[in-house]
Amino acid sequence: MKKIIYLFCLVLSFSFAEAQETYTIDGEILELKTEVDGELDLLWNIIDSKYRYFIRTDDDTIVELKNTEIDGKFQQDYKTLLNELTNDSMSTKRLNLTLFSLKEFIDTYNSTADSSYQSTAVRNTLHFRIGVFGGITNSPFVTNPENLTTPLFGGELEVLDGAQISRHAIFLQAKHVIEQDELQYSTTEFALGYRFRVINKASFSLYGNMKFATLNFSNATILVNNDDVITTEEISDISFDVPFIFGIGADIRITENSFITLAYNELFALFLDNQGNFSQDFAVGYKFNL
Predict the structure, then answer these.
(1) Which runs of E-coded beta strand occur in the chain?
(2) To pair with 180 at 20 to 30 A between CA atoms, which of 15, 21, 198, 249?
């Protein structure tokens, strides 16, 4: 088993080494990946938490695509440079400084400049991330007089728009809250929600969550007073709600395709009553790109 793991790690290291090369550009030593290879090459990488893009011409000259800001206005230098490199043969009006937009532009130019060129740009309209998480919760929308916390765990599928990660996302989440002796309540929840990234950097994002539809399968043990005789009763319930539950979270990049996630959920809801306890719903997880 160890040999298989070592072999797998070795293959990964070779793949990573082949995926990027070292270049010296204006005195700066950079590790760059080749995204498009043709009449014009597109090179890029995430450097110091920023996406940086470069064009390599057929004489091996490498120039950076920039969008400098002067007095609060972006100059769109990259469009001017690409107009020069393509002899104004293609419109840059709708060109964005993003990986896929640049890839599509360079790919199209290479196709017109060289009839033997094989196109590599494939539009991917959706981007997926999957993750798992665990934490604690005091179930603030459930009667909990002692404000006790119980463990929770779950998983999530996040769907984002575009090859370059947008601020907007839809997520599907499954969560289970575990029953314990002090608080005899458990639930399995399936939720559909929306996420907006307030901060959307390559290395870090901070976002707000809103669960707008939930399906809960719950079990609870309650005390029943019947003529001064206290008994217990087990209740099972299935409920569908449109509660609009709000929370916040963050993704911290640890590798090119994976993240540590932090979440503070169930802060409040528009259509569920808080039962007297401020939210103590915290979770930590791991998420990766599919």
Answers:
(1) 20-25, 28-36, 41-47, 50-56, 62-65, 69-70, 73-74, 126-137, 150-161, 168-177, 185-200, 204-226, 229-241, 245-255, 258-269, 281-289
(2) 249
pTM of the model: 0.60
CATH code matching the domain that covers 126-289, chosen among 2.40.160.20, 3.40.50.150, 3.30.450.20, 3.30.470.20: 2.40.160.20
Written as six digits, the tokens of 204 are 């870090």
Q: Where in the chain is the domain with CATH 2.40.160.20?
A: 126-289
pLDDT over 80 (residue 3): no
Calpha distance 165→200 (Å, rounded): 8
Q: What DSSP line would sit under 120-152, residue for residue?
A: ------EEEEEEEEEEEE--TTS--TT---EEE
Neighbours of 37 (CB within 10 A): 15
Alpha carbons 150 and 72: distance in angstroms, whole number: 49
- Amino acid letter at 274? N
Write the pLDDT tens digit of every residue in 96-139.
998 888 998 999 999 988 888 887 766 556 889 999 999 999 99
User: What is the mean pLDDT of the segment spanning 45-71?
Assistant: 92
Half-sphere exposure of 204 (CA within 13 A, CB side): 5
* Confidence (pLDDT) at 180: 84
